[in-house]
Amino acid sequence: MFSMVAPPLLQARYKPKPAWNLFSKDQEVQIGKETSAEVEKKLPLLKDSDPVTVYVQKLGAQLAERAPGAKYPYSFKVVNQKEINAFALPGGPVRINLGVLRAAANEAELAGVIAHEISHIYMRHATRNALIPIITLFDSLLPELIAGSVIIEQLFSIPGMGQLFFEAIRQ
After folding, report:
1. If you ran DSSP here, which 8-state letter would residue 50 be given?
2. CA distances from 94 to 40, 55, 99 (A)
3. Which pTM does this prediction carry?
4. Could you give the 3-state DSSP secondary structure of residue 68?
5. Is the distance from CB of 96 to CB of 39 less than 8 angstroms?
6. CA gap 149, 155 in Å, rounded
7. 160 torsion bin: left (phi>0), alpha (psi -120 to 50), beta (else)
8. Which of 93, 146, 129 is nearest to 18 (CA)?
9. What's the pLDDT tens digit per position in 60-104?
10. d(Cα 41, Cα 102) in Å, to the nearest integer?
């Protein structure tokens, strides 16, 4: 019975769509590389040759292969910290604390954590969240801009603001 019901159910599964974002995939990948380099200077990572890291990389690659949408250059590393934590950086880097592996009762629980982090990358949460202050600023200044009481040159004197504004209205 299940085999007759499963194909329509699988086709009807939820297909998420990443949120609107000013950053391109290439920009996200670059931001992720730069941020990852900075983070890795500050965090104690297990070596890439460590069997735990090799296991996480293999499991992460299997999950990333099935992720929808744009194919990011996912990378998986293990942070040698006992706290239960995991995080994703823009464009592909995923970091899993050793505490997560110790707390997971089985591979499925670990896979759930890794898949959750992959979903943050797919949904572009990090770069979208970076835009919230900028969007809030424009939203709060809009009445003044319309009324003409704010000098537009002052607004655009903020580094990068003009480019972000023009990209936002072009979307």
Report:
1. S
2. 12, 14, 15
3. 0.69
4. coil
5. no
6. 12
7. left
8. 129
9. 999 999 888 778 999 999 999 999 999 999 899 999 999 999 999
10. 24
